[in-house]
Design a protein that fits this description.
Layout (H helix, E strand, L loop, with lengths): L1 E2 L5 E2 L1 H43 L18 H5 L8 H20 L8 H17 L4 H29 L1
Antiparallel strand pairs: 1-2
């Protein structure tokens, strides 16, 4: 017999029954939670697949990869397939788009290109006011920086969207 603090006695059989019922209830709870978590995981995976597939983003075929891209394992693995999973989206964003952005920006980022863009705008304004001979060259340089910065913005935005 087990005695409680008030002197009430509880039999071993009753204690075993309480513990057994608690164990069964816990097992049932874990089973239900397992089904719920699995359903949520399946929903999330299918949702990501549906959303990415709708964008119709495809990895280039193996023969279309540049020499540098052909050294990246995930680009070879997913070559010619649709971006339809988080793993594929991460590879496409980091290895494909990221490499192209590095080439376009020549080491610069969207943010860091803002400084030369502002400087060139100021130089163009000063050259226009002074009637300088190099005005057209400055305008061409500004147009090139603007185009690069816009490409970097679009690429970084797409990268960010794929990674979220």
């Amino acid at each position: 017999m087990i005695t409680t603090s008030k002197g009430n006695e509880m039999s071993r059989k009753r204690l075993d029954l309480i513990i057994s019922v608690g164990g069964v209830a816990t097992a049932i709870l874990f089973l239900v939670l397992g089904f719920v978590f699995r359903a949520n995981g399946t929903f999330a995976r299918d949702y990501v697949k549906d959303q990415l597939s709708a964008q119709e983003i495809n990895f280039p075929a193996t023969e279309a990869l540049t020499d540098e891209e052909a050294t990246v394992e995930c680009l070879i693995e997913f070559a010619g397939t649709v971006v339809d999973s988080g793993e594929k989206a991460e590879c496409y964003a980091n290895e494909y788009i990221g490499a192209h952005l590095a080439g376009i920006g020549k080491g610069e980022t969207y943010a860091s290109l803002g400084t030369p863009q502002r400087e060139l705008r100021d130089k163009v304004a000063a050259a226009e006011a002074a009637g300088a001979a190099d005005l057209e060259t400055l305008k061409a340089d500004l147009a090139a920086v603007n185009a690069t910065r816009e490409s970097m913005f679009k690429g970084e935005t797409l990268r960010g969207l794929l990674l979220t």
